[in-house]
Amino acid sequence: MNRITARIKRYTRRKRGVRKNVFGAPTKPRLTITRTGKNMYAQLIDDTSGRTLCSASTIEKDGKVEAGSNCVAAKSIGARLAEKAKTAGIHAVVFDRNGYRYHGRVKALAEGAREGGLKF
To answer: Does residue 65 surpass a pLDDT of 80?
Structure first.
């Protein structure tokens, strides 16, 4: 097994460990994040119906950020997602860090969402 497949295997194991304890209901959806080298994405998911209720990312047309993959951009995504969630009537969520460490961009996104008014 080479380094890349070992890394992917570790990531999926961490992701499964987080995911088995987190479930999004219609009243309290799951806030999940996806991190790439260039961009960051966040969405609120209702797991009972399998629907995405709202989402925010660094590549949206209305709020595109210059540097898509840093802590400042992540914080603004969290705030934008909280704003969209408020308009959809969502005030509380469960946080799914998706196997990523709660550090850096992930932490910044969570703090931005909390400052925007989401409770988790």
So the answer is: no
